[in-house]
Design goal:
- By secondary structure, the chain is an alpha/beta fold.
- It folds into 2 domains: about 100 residues, Ribosomal protein L30/S12 (60s Ribosomal Protein L30, Chain: A); about 150 residues, Alpha/beta knot (3-Layer(aba) Sandwich).
- α6 links the parallel β6 and β7.
- It is elongated, with a radius of gyration of 20 Å.
- It starts with a strand and ends with a helix.
Length: about 260
């Protein structure tokens, strides 16, 4: 472990951390930012590689600080000006970590209760909230199908409230996922409107369950709908004709838990 004191926001280490706001930089480096004590502790406790740790001395409990320092490759002691440069919040966090990304392969996922697959999800806030919900119900992981938003973006990491570090994430092309779904040992169900769609309460969700959710605007593609043995809908009885993707996923997950 190395320790540096940095007082200038123009420092090269700080510039490198700030550059991780860009998806291109995250992709090239394989790194991402996590802001706040809860997020960094979750990363450390779940065994993720902590590459950089930036914190303001005197703002953290010694026990928490020692846990993080022990795992960090480089520790940066910084001031308020540096934290403000790194932070995406009006009130900067006292600690910011840089972690190595971790992506799983489809075949590495183990389903005991439920896996959630998301096709072309675009909103990082939705993705982070879904990760948090999967964690809350004890789900087994999430699969991102085709071109999805980055699970390691600042918005997704923040919305996950640390659950990104606890929920395995895999990425797959549509055809590979369809092959995976056809061999899945359990209930496979997606939300969509077509000629075989039934009310979500009419299906028996025998675990493990593979729940497939579509894009915020367009829903599941016709190709994926055709490959699913079950499609369901959430009834809309008021004036609203749709639900937010993260809310709909949460409703489905808690229904699955009932069965």
């Amino acid at each position: 472990m190395k320790i540096k004191t940095i007082t200038s926001p123009a420092n090269e280490e700080i510039k490198a951390m700030r550059a991780l706001d860009m998806r291109k930089e995250r992709k090239e480096t394989g790194l991402f930012l996590a802001e706040g004590l809860r997020h960094v502790i979750e990363g450390v406790d779940n065994g993720w590689d902590l590459v950089r740790l930036a914190y303001k001395p005197g703002m953290l409990k010694n026990a928490d600080l020692d846990r993080m320092k022990e795992k960090a490759e480089l520790v940066l002691e910084v001031n308020d000006a540096v934290l403000e440069k790194l932070s995406h919040k009006d009130n900067p966090q006292s600690v910011i970590g840089v972690f190595k990304q971790r992506i799983h392969k489809l075949e590495d996922l183990s389903a005991k209760r439920c896996l959630v697959a998301l096709e072309q999800v675009r909103d990082p806030g939705n993705l982070g909230t879904i990760l948090r919900t999967i964690d809350a119900v004890g789900g087994d992981g999430v699969i991102l199908i085709d071109q999805c938003c980055d699970p390691f973006s600042t918005e997704a990491v923040r919305a996950s409230m640390g659950s990104l570090f606890a929920v395995p994430v895999a990425m797959a092309q549509r055809n590979d996922f369809i092959t995976f779904a056809k061999s899945f040992k359990g209930t496979v169900v997606g939300t969509a409107l077509n000629d075989k769609t039934v009310d979500y309460r009419q299906v028996k969700y025998e675990q493990p369950v593979l729940l497939v959710m579509g894009n915020e605007q367009a829903g599941l593609t016709p190709e994926l709908q055709a490959a699913l043995p079950n499609t369901v809908k959430l009834p809309m009885t008021g004036r609203a004709d749709s639900l937010n993707l993260a809310i709909a996923t949460g409703v489905m997950l808690y229904k699955i838990l009932e069965d």
